[in-house]
Each structure stands twice: as structure tokens, then as C-alpha cells.
Amino acid sequence: MKKIIDQFQARFKDVQQFSGTTALLLGIFSWLVYLLIREPAAKELVALTGWFFLIVGTDWVLFKKTVSIPLLGLKITYGPWVTGALLAIALYSNRFFIQDIPTALISWPLLSGFIAAIPFLLKTGPQIKKFDDFLPFERQYLVLLVLISLLLSCWIRFHFLLDNLLQQYPSLLADRNVNKSAFIVRLTPPPVSQGVTILDTAEAMIRDELRRGELRGRSWTDGQRLLRNVQTETSPIRSINLAPVIAEKVFGNLPGVEEARLWLYNAQFFPSNIDNAPGSQSPWYGTLLLQAIWRGPSSQPNGYTLAKSCRVPREPDAPPVRGLERPKELSFYLLKCDPIESRTRGITLDRTPLPTTTPWWNLNPQTPSASPTPSI
User: Fold this and answer.
1) Model pLDDT for residues 314-359, shown as the tens digit of each residue
2) Is 148 found in the same domain as 9?
3) CA of 259: how far to CAs of 54, 102, 166, 263, 317, in Å?
4) 113 and 232 co-located in one domain
């Protein structure tokens, strides 16, 4: 034990009174005192003292120390970057000017550049240099230092801006053109667009309404009439009636997401036109078209539309439809919905430009929606 104490004392004898090592030791001592005291005001004062000695000591010890970059033959002074990181952490931990981690990371290059510029801004005295006191290479160094610090800070800010954009509009990651972006690197499979979830939810709600109608003794003709009159005022599956419920089911677990107010939902019924030809009769009574229209940020200037086509067969006594079985429940037999092409591969189907004259209904229940029925 005595030998260990002697070695410890011998190391401290080599420490100079006015040096970076002394400042670091004072910082460590301040943190030890911080752990021992309980008074909040005293703890805060001791913590600030510890941060001060730690930052000054680190900058002092690493002053003018460089690291070489292989192949390029460059030497970089890394001390200011370490000191700038400590200063950003200190400001964030005390909530002084910096209130969150993104701001701390954005401020880090600016603080590091300021620390690296201090030796060039001062002269003996100490006094601040005037413009004529700077040597030509010092002016060049300071200009490059400011530009590099601003560039790094802007890139970090751009990262958080892009990350926040993708959090507010998660369906952007489902856009196939994201793969062509120079700023986004996809590390996971593309997610499913919220438009796909909207259409699947709408189909499930329509089938549920048909099922409830079947329990009331609704006939096959009544079910067809319900789908045909999808946009009448009294229809329970009218777009303007389903939109608020769909919004709650799809975006209810994503509070604060801006994407919710930029999706539009619409449903239209198209009767079969083959019957107009002489001697021909289609096995389909018509088509129910469900649409999810995106009016937010997109690689397409006018947004895009996701559509799900659900075909409605004729009466049971009509010729059997190939590929359409006859389950017990009317709700599953009355609709044959084609799968959305983008369900597992992101948005890959053709983008349909949105018309500018057709009134669409907003999916957001808080936004007033147009009441007129779109023309077919």
C-alpha cells in the first residue's frame, strides 16, 4: 500500500502548477465535491466550476496536437473539436442557450471553429488583433475555418430537418423515387404507404356495413343498391361519412403527424357498360373504386392517387364468375377487390395527376370538406 501511495505522490510532483493537467485535476476534484454535497444551488455552482476546468484543461492539453490523414498528407488539429464537443455538452446539460440534443450537435462545429480561432484573434497582452495585424495566411485560415464550420453545421441541420420531415410524412419513404435521392440511404425495406392502409381500412368498413346489413335480412339486390348509391346523402358508406372514422383508425396511434391532414379519401361506383352492346351481358354488376389521394410533399408535382378496384357481381342466378367463390357471408361474395400493387413493394403503380375541378373529400375530420358529389 505504501508503495502505491509513493508512486501516486511521485506522479503529482511532476505536475506543474500552471498547466493543463492541473486544470483537469481541478475539474475531477470539482466533480467529486459535486457528488458529496446536497444543496441544489451549491451543486449547480460546483458543476459549472467542474465544466470550466474540464474544458480549459482539455483544450490546454490538446493544444496544437495533430492527427495525420493517410494518403492525403493532411494534419488536422483535433483539440478544438474535442473542446467544442465538451462545451456543447456543458451548455446542454445546464440548458444554457442549448435546450435539446439536435441543437447541441448543430452548435458543435460552430463552437469548435470559435475555439480554434481564439489563438489567431489574440496577441500578447492579451489584446484582440486588429484587421491590419493579421498575416495573409492567418486571414486565409480564419476564412476557411468559418466556412468549414458553417458547412458542417448546415449539413447536421439538414439531417435533422430531413429526419423531421420523414417523421411527419412517413409515406414519403414508400415513394420509389426516394432511391434516387442523393441524401437518403435506405437501410431497411420500404414501408407501406399510409394510402394502402387507408384503402384496406375503407374496404374492411364497407364489408362490415354489408355484414351488418345481412343480419338485418338485407337481400342481394339491397347490397348491390347500397354499393351503387355510395355517394347519396343517406348512404352509410358515403366518403364524407367514412373519412373521419378512417382517419381515426389509421392515424389515431400517430398523434401530431402532419401527414394525416394531407390524405383524401373518395369512393365512386361505375356501372357495367358491357350491357349496352347487343347480345352481351357482363358477369359484373359494376365496379366500386376506392381512392386514397395524396396532396402532400411528393416527387410528383400534383401528388398521386392510390386506387383499389372492387368489382360487384350480378345476382346469384347469373353465370358463375371465374375465381370468385361463394362464401356463406354476403359481404365477402358481394365484393371482389383487386390487391393494391404497391402493397409489398412501395408505391409502384402509375401516378394519376389529380383533377383541379373535382371536389375531393378530406380525410382529416377537423378540416371542412366539400359536400357536392364528384361527377363520374
Assistant:
1) 776 544 555 555 545 666 677 888 877 443 333 333 333 333 333 3
2) yes
3) 45, 23, 10, 7, 46
4) no
Quick one: which of 137, 138, 134, 80 has its CA closest to 110?
80
| pTM (2 d.p.) | 0.68
Asked if 120 and 207 sit in the same domain, the reply is no
Of the residues 172, 204, 230, the one at which a domain ends: 172
87 and 138 assigned to the same domain:
yes
The residues, ordered by sequence, that sit 6+ positions from 265 with a Cβ below 8 Å of its Cβ are 198, 202, 239, 242, 243, 246, 290, 291, 292, 293, 361, 363
Q: List the one residue out of 326, 310, 306, 287 whose CA is nearest residue 204.
A: 310
Do residue 106 and residue 250 come from a single domain?
Answer: no
Please provide the size of the chain in residues: 376
Does residue 348 fall inside a structural domain? no
Q: Is residue 189 part of a domain?
A: no
Q: Which residue range(s) make up the domain with 296?
A: 194-337
156 and 49 both lie in a single domain: yes
Same domain, 18 and 161: yes
d(CA 50, CA 213): 73
Structural domains counted in the chain: 2
Residue 360, domain member (yes or no): no
pLDDT at res. 151: 95
By the 8 A CB rule, do 84 and 118 touch? no
Q: Nearest to residue 235, comparing CAs of 198, 268, 196?
A: 268
How many other C-beta atoms are found inside a 10 Å radius of the C-beta of residue 89?
17
CB 270 within 8 A of CB 228: no
Query: Are 77 and 39 in the same domain?
Result: yes
Contact 170, 191 (CB under 8 A): yes
CA distance 339 to 332: 15
Q: Which residues of the chain carry a pLDDT beneath 50?
A: 318-319, 327, 341-376
3-class SS of residue 8: helix
- Cα–Cα dist 361/261, whole Å: 11
- For residue 184, being part of any structural domain is answered with no
The residues, any chain, with a CB within 8 Å of residue 221's CB and separated by 6 or more, are: 315
Q: What is the per-residue burial (b if ≥16 Cβ within 10 Å, else e) of 298-314?
A: beeeebbbbbbebbbbb
pLDDT at residue 317, rounded to an integer: 52
* Helix extents (H) in the chain: 2-13, 20-36, 40-61, 79-93, 101-121, 136-168, 194-215, 220-228, 239-251, 330-333
